Amino acid sequence: MLKVSKFGGSSLATGEQVRQVCDIITADPDRRLVVVSAPGKRHSQDIKVTDLLIAAASERLMGKIGASECAEAIERYRNIATELELPAKVVDPIASDLTQRLESDTDDTDLYMDIMKAGGEDNCARLIAQVLQAHGVEAHYVNPKDAGLLLSDEPGNAQILPEAYTRLRSLSERPGITIFPGFFGYSKDGHIVTFSRGGSDITGAILAGAVRATVYENFTDVDSVFAANPSIVSNPTPISELTYREMRELSYAGFSVFHDEALEPVYRAMVPVHIRNTNNPDAAGTRIVPKRTANDNPVVGIAAMNDVCFVYLSKYLMNRQIGFGRRLLQILETENISFEHIPSGIDNMSVILREENLPLDKEKRVVEKIRQTLAPEDVYVERDLSLIMVVGEGMQHTVGVASRATSAFADANVNIEMINQGSNEVSMMFGVKSTGMEAAVQALYKEFFNGSYNS
Question: What is the pTM of this model?
Answer without folding.
Answer: 0.87
